[in-house]
Structure formats: C-alpha cells, structure tokens
C-alpha cells in the first residue's frame, strides 16, 4: 500500500512538472503580434484576437487564425473585415499576396493584397490603388466589433482623413 501511494505521488508530481513545463514552453513561443514586429511591422495591422498562427520561415508563408471573422469600422469612413483565416507572405517591411482582409471603400468591398512599410508610413494596396497611413496609427491593435472606439482603447486611431485614391 505504501509503495502504491509513493507511486501515485510520483505520478502526480511528474504530471504537474510536465504540465507546467508545457505551459512554460507554450508561453515562451512568440505571438503573431511579436512575429509582425520581428519583420518591422507594428502590431496594430492585426486586430486583437489571433488565437494561433503558422509561419514557414523559409518562404515567409503564414496563416493567422481567429475564432470567427472580425469586422469593425475606423474613425473616418473605412470598414474592415478579417476572415477567420488570413494568409500571405511576410518579409522585412512587406506583406504580399494577402487573402482574407477586405476594406469597404464607398460602397465596394476591396481585398487588401499588399502592405508595405516605407519608413514611418504604411502603404496599403488593393491592387489598382493604395493609401498611406502613419505608423503611429498602428501602435495598438483594433478590437473586433468596435475598432479603436472601444471604451478600453487608449488611442484614437485613423483620426486623419485618408483615402484610397492614389494610384499604385
């Protein structure tokens, strides 16, 4: 009986040790937001709520996953929609071949296909046209449903009037 108790105790201690080790390893892995920063992008180009991601560091191919689609309006007139899975290719200062991200301009939904960081500006391209925004507008991630107008948002983003009318 004493031997069974000690075996049970060893089993419980081992389980607790390996469980805490797994949590520590999990929490040490970088988030999708820190991966963005490692490629010189601000976290705010992704809304809050990414639950997982995968990245092939040799090709730059990535997927970011949300529990559901994510939509919100920005101060000004833009509406954004992120599907539950977004994908593309990431490299230093450039996201290309994006899928799963749309912006509503006037009455038309357009796919954002490329994002390029140029110094202190971000250029968002929908293929035929693009718009530039200051990096400062992406220091915080927007929240699904309310964007930057949520009660807990500290920054008022996209306060300037930008438009997607300049040619690429």
From TrEMBL:
Q: Which residues form the signal peptide?
A: 1-24
The protein's matches in InterPro entries, at most eight in alphabetical order, are given as: At5g01610-like (IPR036758), DUF538 (IPR007493)
Keywords from UniProt, A to Z, are: Signal
The answer, when asked if Zinc-finger is one of the entry's keywords, is no
Q: Does the keyword Oxidoreductase apply?
A: no
Q: What is this protein called?
A: Uncharacterized protein
Its source organism is Cardamine amara subsp. amara
Q: What does the record give as the organism's lineage?
A: Eukaryota, Viridiplantae, Streptophyta, Embryophyta, Tracheophyta
């Amino acid at each position: 009986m004493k031997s069974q108790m000690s075996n049970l105790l060893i089993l419980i201690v081992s389980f607790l040790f390996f469980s805490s080790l797994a949590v520590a390893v999990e929490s040490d892995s970088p988030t999708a937001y820190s991966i963005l920063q490692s490629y010189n992008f601000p976290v705010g180009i992704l809304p809050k709520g990414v639950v997982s991601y995968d990245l092939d560091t040799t090709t730059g191919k990535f997927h970011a996953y949300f529990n559901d689609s994510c939509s919100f309006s920005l101060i000004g007139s833009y509406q954004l929609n992120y599907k539950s899975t977004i994908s593309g290719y990431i490299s230093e200062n450039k996201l290309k071949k994006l899928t799963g991200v749309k912006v509503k301009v006037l009455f038309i939904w357009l796919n954002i296909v490329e994002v390029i960081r140029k110094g202190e500006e971000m250029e968002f391209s929908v293929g035929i046209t693009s718009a530039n925004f200051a990096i400062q507008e992406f220091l915080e991630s927007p929240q699904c449903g309310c964007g930057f107008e949520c009660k807990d948002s500290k920054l008022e983003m996209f306060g300037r009037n930008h438009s997607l009318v300049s040619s690429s």
